[in-house]
């Protein structure tokens, strides 16, 4: 059964919370430690496969811009799937974006992450 509820961040799985905390401060090494070896990340219709490729993405993504990240929502889809909604404000085109980080967990690690625009 699917549950869609707004959650405070402290109710997210530790893996998701700690990955996101590392990602926000652009610590690709720490963020990568929460990934499975065969992790897949999809961002802006670009796919990165495996811990090494995903690490490079995490290290380089958005590095040409200055921006702030604020968590504005979170929800549990089921035991293995979680969504964190963030609001970015910065020097990138458009200046403001709301994104959903859709996590799929396996054995306590992130197996898949899809980053997509939050539906209006």
From TrEMBL:
Entry-linked Pfam families: SnoaL_2 (PF12680)
Alphabetical list of InterPro entries matching this protein: NTF2-like_dom_sf, SnoaL-like
Annotated signal sequence range: none
Sequence ranges assigned to domain SnoaL-like in this UniProt record: 16-112
Domain of life: Bacteria
Protein name listed in UniProt: Nuclear transport factor 2 family protein
Organism expressing this protein natively: Streptomyces werraensis
